[in-house]
Automatic annotation (TrEMBL):
This is Cadmium-translocating P-type ATPase. Gene3D superfamilies: Calcium-transporting ATPase, cytoplasmic domain N (3.40.1110.10), Calcium-transporting ATPase, cytoplasmic transduction domain A (2.70.150.10), HAD superfamily/HAD-like (3.40.50.1000), nmb1532 protein domain like (1.20.120.520). The gene is cadA. Belongs to the cation transport ATPase (P-type) (TC 3.A.3) family. Type IB subfamily. It holds the Pfam family Hydrolase. Keywords: ATP-binding, Cell membrane, Membrane, Metal-binding, Nucleotide-binding, Transmembrane, Transmembrane helix.
Length: 760
């Protein structure tokens, strides 16, 4: 860049000095200065031509060299000096355009954390980030960048994660939660416990991926190289024809001047680089212009299920006690033992117990057998949590296994002194943004969506039915996943999205492999063409929007520029443009082409529905409330299960507990949604009828709660009568079903409008 600026300064100085000499009457000296400026520009132009030839290409830089040489030959020194300025200026303009287009990718590198505040003897000391090791305790002051991946050790962290996810709103993380390097602390200072070195942390991986991006590999850019093969002969033919027809060599030089340089060479790289930068702003790192352009042409989408369409983190959906038992006691015992395990299912069980604010006793003599479960002593009794091996008498166990198979749930059995105490049912929930994202992808041009998974067919088909997926390839090994992707790729341009190490071969087999880089493995990120830095799939739709728009702008810019250049060449051949004026005309064309190509940097609506900040804040608030209200919803079903099995006084206590939750927590939430959220959503969607069905669900919830109230008044202090039990169960089951469906509908239809996590 500095050399090109120096060349621009020198040629511009020669042009100005020559003009000043002519103005003072020293025409011969002025011509000499202009000739020197022309020669100064000719030297690098010849070098560019030689470099292209050595690389096996004949670029349109040859036209620039011929134009400069021709200007010297016909003594058009002013034209030569102007061409020199325009050529140097065009190179600087191209560098500036590409630099501006890549600014978001460059910003990723510039924000790399270089130091950390590590506690030494209880005092935080500044050390190079590369010196941090897993287990070190670090201080992250307000306004500073988290230097390495870690876990919040003390305090609550409020973080700006826009560098990784593209999400502008801060995200809250509580003690014990993971944070990634490269995010900025926008709240109070907090401590983290490092879990990785700087080189192995998330942000370092993102920077490495960003360095791999290259605009020049795009097909629309390679088209420019092929274009030069016929544009150069056409230019020479037109210039020679003008010379022969008129007998004036100046016309030939004028044709060469307006053909210098080719706008396609400027437009395509600038637009593609701008598109790569724009996708980075959405939290999508695309490894090259070729991948970006292919992304915009894709027609088939293949998705892994676990961690892509589903959350990848099983959560407890129900706790069922053996006849005569207490579900709360079952969960408490299971969590007491599982709190000593690092297994993903154990974490879900402990999380469910903590959400219900259960007091967990300290277990003793804990042991864990991989693939089997965990065991320990709790209150002097032997508790085992995990698989239930061997034949077990009784129809209750068989019934729970059948229910789990029907629901696609995982069973975690709890035994106390070798007697079955209960079972915890877990399920990997469908992502809240999955449905809307798939609809956006279809709007962006995806015609076929296929789920590819190693999971059981019935589980995969249940998820596919919810999301409206076209095809399901279940129970696939990594090798058969590759074959499935190849089959789809033979029919149409195919995107494959996955997040695990077993997805890496399938990602490599697709036309475009997309890795969930937020928690995907290094192998999947390495094999992929596109990496999502956020733990969401909706940025794929954003990237497709950017890819399609970028290619459209690149082709449009190149086409318009080429049309204007050819028109100018024809006018010059007719003798209507002198060489000096031709250089100015060509530069104006180049400037217009580059400015149009840089439109790819600007945000565009695409398939995303814009949401204003106040509405986004409301959506995030109610999404957080959903997360807090979900665990108590299971209590409604649990009470319905046992309402007829308990003595009337105990059943009454359970029913009053449900009513207290409904009155104090659930109904205020629903009524606040009706009053504040739904009017805001109607404004965003520009349709007052958009929330009518949700309002109808609120009315049904109110009706069922009113019915429960009447039952409680009828029961009095004695508890429910036998003739009330059937309707009570129907009321509670109905309330649980309506609330579960209503929550899911709101999360997919409304909460997914906002990008990024709502906080924890």
């Amino acid at each position: 860049m500095r050399r090109r600026l120096a060349l621009l300064g020198a040629t511009l100085g020669a042009l100005a000095a020559g003009g000043l000499l002519h103005w003072t009457g020293a025409a011969a000296a002025g011509d000499a200065v202009w000739a020197a400026g022309t020669t100064l520009a000719l030297i690098p132009a010849v070098w560019w031509v030689v470099s292209a030839l050595l690389a096996g290409r004949l670029g349109v830089d040859a036209i620039a060299a011929l134009a400069l040489g021709g200007a010297l030959a016909v003594r058009e020194y002013l034209a030569g000096a102007v061409i020199g300025v325009m050529l140097a200026g065009g190179r600087v303009l191209e560098d500036h355009a590409l630099s501006r287009a890549r600014r978001d990718l460059t910003a990723l590198h510039e924000r790399t954390p270089r130091s950390a505040r590590r506690y030494e003897d209880g005092v935080p000391r500044l050390v190079p980030a590369g010196d941090v090791r897993p287990g070190d305790r670090l201080l992250v002051p307000s306004g500073e960048t988290v230097p390495v991946d870690g876990v919040v050790a003390s305090g609550d962290a409020l973080l700006d994660e826009s560098a990784l996810t593209g999400e502008s709103l801060p995200v809250e993380h509580r003690a014990g939660e993971c944070v990634r390097s490269g995010v900025v602390n926008v709240g109070q200072a907090f401590d983290i416990r490092a879990t990785a070195t700087a080189d192995a942390s998330a942000y370092a991986g993102v920077v490495r991926l960003a360095r791999e991006t290259e605009a020049g590999s795009a097909p629309v850019v390679r088209l420019a190289d092929r274009f030069a093969a016929w544009f150069l002969p056409l230019t020479l033919l037109l210039a020679g024809g003008a010379w022969l027809a008129s007998g004036d060599a100046v016309r030939a030089v004028a044709v060469l001047v307006v053909a210098t340089p080719c706008p396609l060479l400027l437009a395509a790289p600038a637009a593609i680089a701008a598109g790569l930068s724009r996708t980075a702003r959405h939290g999508v790192i695309v490894k090259g212009g070729g991948a970006l352009e292919t992304l915009g042409r894709a027609r088939t989408l293949v998705l892994d299920k676990t961690g892509t369409l589903t959350e990848g983190r099983p959560r407890v959906v129900d706790v069922v006690a053996a006849p005569g038992g207490d579900p709360e006691r079952v969960l408490r015992l299971a969590a007491a033992v599982d709190q000593m395990s690092a297994h993903v299912l154990a974490a879900a069980v402990v999380g469910a117990a903590q959400a219900r604010k259960l007091d967990l006793p300290e277990p003793r003599e804990v042991s864990e057998i991989p693939g089997t479960g965990t065991a320990g002593l709790v209150g002097g009794r032997r508790v085992r949590v995990g698989r239930l091996d061997g034949a077990r008498p009784g129809g209750w166990v068989a019934a729970q296994r059948a229910r789990a198979a029907l629901d696609g749930a995982i069973t975690v059995w709890v035994t106390v002194d070798d007697e079955v105490s209960g079972v915890v049912l877990l399920r990997d929930a469908v992502r809240g943004d999955a449905g809307r994202t798939l609809r956006r992808l279809r709007a962006a041009g995806i015609a076929r969506v296929v789920m590819l998974t190693g999971d059981r067919a019935e589980v995969a088909e249940a998820v596919a039915a919810v999301l409206g997926i076209d095809g399901v390839l279940a129970e696939r090994t990594p090798l058969s996943k590759v074959e499935g992707v190849r089959d789809e790729a033979r029919r149409a341009t195919t995107i494959m999205v996955g997040d695990g190490i077993n997805d890496a071969p399938a990602l490599a087999a697709a036309d475009v492999g997309v890795a969930m880089g937020a928690r995907g493995t290094a192998a999947s990120a390495e094999a992929a063409d596109v990496v999502l830095t956020a733990d969401r799939i909706d940025p794929i739709a954003d990237a497709m929007d950017v890819a399609r728009r970028t290619r459209r702008i690149a082709v449009q810019s190149a086409g318009a520029g080429m049309g204007l250049s050819l028109l100018a060449m024809a006018v010059a051949a007719a003798g209507a443009i002198v060489p000096a004026a031709g250089a100015v005309v060509q530069e104006l064309i180049d400037v217009a082409v580059i400015l149009n190509a840089l439109r790819a940097l600007r945000a565009a609506r695409g398939t995303r529905l814009p949401v204003d900040r106040p509405t986004a804040d409301l959506l995030r608030r109610f999404e957080r409330e959903h997360a807090e209200l979900r665990p108590p919803l299971d209590m409604i079903r649990a009470v319905a299960d046992r309402v007829g099995l308990l003595p009337p006084d105990e059943a009454l206590a359970d029913l009053r507990g449900v009513r207290e939750f409904l009155a104090d927590e659930l109904l205020p939430h629903e009524h606040d949604e009706e009053a504040r959220l739904y009017p805001a959503i109607a404004r965003v969607l520009r349709d007052p009828e958009a929330t009518v069905t949700m309002s109808r669900a609120h009315a049904e919830i109110d009706r069922l709660v009113g019915r429960l109230d009447r039952h409680l008044r009828m029961a009095g202090d004695a508890g429910p009568r036998p003739d009330q039990l059937d309707d009570l169960r129907a009321c509670l089951y109905g309330l649980h079903a309506v609330l579960t469906l209503h929550f899911a509908q709101e999360e997919e239809a409304y909460f997914s409008l906002v990008t990024g996590p709502a906080g924890q």
